[in-house]
Amino acid sequence: MTFPVVGMVGGGQLARMTHEAGIPLGIRFKLLSDTPQDSAAQVVNDVVIGDHRDLDTLRAFAQGCDVITFDHEHVPTEHLRALEADGIAVRPGPDALVHAQDKGVMRAKLSEIGVPCPRHRIVRDPADVAAFAAEGVPGGAAEPGDGFPVVLKTVRGGYDGKGVWVVHSVEEAAAPFRAGVPVLAEEKVDFARELAANVVRSPHGQAVAYPVVESIQTGGVCDTVIAPAPDLPEELSARAQQMALRIAQELGVIGHLAVELFETRDGRVLVNELAMRPHNSGHWTQDGAVTSQFANHVRAVLDLPLGDPRPRARWTVMCNVLGGDYPDMYQAYLHCMARDPQLKIHMYGKDVKPGRKVGHVNTYGDDLADVRERARHAADYLRGTITE
After folding, report:
1. How many CB atoms sit inside 10 A of residue 2's CB?
2. 101 — phi, psi (to 5°)?
3. 4 neighbors 69 (Cβ within 8 angstroms)
């Protein structure tokens, strides 16, 4: 029996954990990585070092792979179309993935299919940003500058707060245009909290939805995820799951889709961002769900039956471990493991740098306050923020 080979483009921690999920299934992985030191390149046996932006490199890498998938959205869309023309299975395909690559394309498509989003449009220059801001003022702007603040985003390439600006005046709006790329303007939503709906869809149309989670951001970076989102009305949770499943179907997504959402103060959910790969908001599933997001992504891209997404415990909390001024995190294991034998630590093999995601921890149980405290303590102790 010959087991399939999954070609993973991108060598980060998402590729590392996806590879881990395929090991029990006997799935073989081939990795296209930027450097031998990348997170996944440290653990995958078959590694090709190369540039994902080079078509010849991609074509050579795809040889011997049964399917190509990704741990980021940065492969040029035209290269993916070329691979498909060569007869290579690309999942998700370029027609779907472009909606995670280009925020302008994403907003246009979601609006076309009736998915609620923040007010938005592509803007040409700072004066156009001011005009967009004024459009949000009932009855029109009375004074120049009314309608701010506004969120500006480069349509391609941003993540973890990069490529995103909150501007409070036309003068501040100049910075995003200096890169010479299209800029998307969005209203600054007065939201109660951020949520995420994670779903997985296979080529034959089977789809599963994980519980909707609360995602807590610090400085534009995901800090904590609580599964399920506390005090979320059942009707709103179902609406968010159905919205994510509909987006996956309408866009033709194959694999994992994360739909980042704003929960507004008047009881609505608006789509913020899309990611078509395993996602930080789904890391809790490694220890808190019957089938993790990583395992279901592998199943989906291979068109295997999908696994059960239901939670194993009443509550699961994920906290990211960010780099600080304490580089030797291994020395902190003794304290963390002794204090909480149920704690699950996941490290990425990265050098510790301030603010860099180098791992995460998962905790679970029946008491939310206790579960949150255990996760927060472990993440802070590993970082060196606390020492007792």
Report:
1. 6
2. -85, -35
3. no
Q: How far apart are CA 133 and CA 57, in angstroms?
A: 44
Q: Is the pTM of this model over 0.90?
A: yes
Which helix H or strand E contains 209, and what residues bound it?
A: strand 207-209
Q: Name residues whose C-beta falls within 8 Å of residue 385's C-beta, 6 or more positions apart in sequence.
A: 324
Closest CA to 357 of 379, 388, 374: 379
Q: The tokens 């780099």 sit on which residue?
A: 323
Tokens 């691979």, residue located: 83
Name every residue whose Cβ is closer than 8 Å to that of residue 86 and which is 6 or more positions away in sequence: 59, 62
Nearest CA to 170 among 150, 190, 188, 200?
150
pLDDT at 159: 61
The per-residue pLDDT for range 55-64, each reduced to its tens digit, is: 999 999 999 9
User: What six digits make up the tokens of 8?
Assistant: 């993973």
Query: Which among 362, 364, 365 is positioned nearest to 379, based on CA atoms?
Result: 362
DSSP, collapsed to helix, strand or coil, labels residue 348 as coil
- Starting at the earlier edge strand, list the strands of the sheet with 164-167: 120-123, 183-187, 150-154, 164-167
Say if strands 183-187 and 315-322 run parallel, antiparallel, or are unpaired: unpaired
Closest listed residue to residue 29, CA positions, set 371, 134, 21: 21
Other CB atoms within 10 Å distance of the CB of residue 204: 9
pLDDT interval class at 2 (50, 70, 90)? confident
Find the angle CA(279)-CA(90)-CA(88) to the nearest 5 degrees: 155
Q: Where are the alpha helices (DSSP H) in the chain?
A: 13-22, 55-62, 77-85, 94-101, 103-112, 126-135, 234-251, 285-288, 293-301, 333-339, 368-383
Q: For the CA atoms of 130, 133, 135, 139, what is the dihedral angle to 10 degrees?
A: -100
User: Would you give the distance in Å from CA 337 to the centre of its chain?
Assistant: 28
- Render pLDDT for 331-361 as a digit per residue (tens, 0 to 9): 999 999 999 999 999 999 999 998 899 999 9
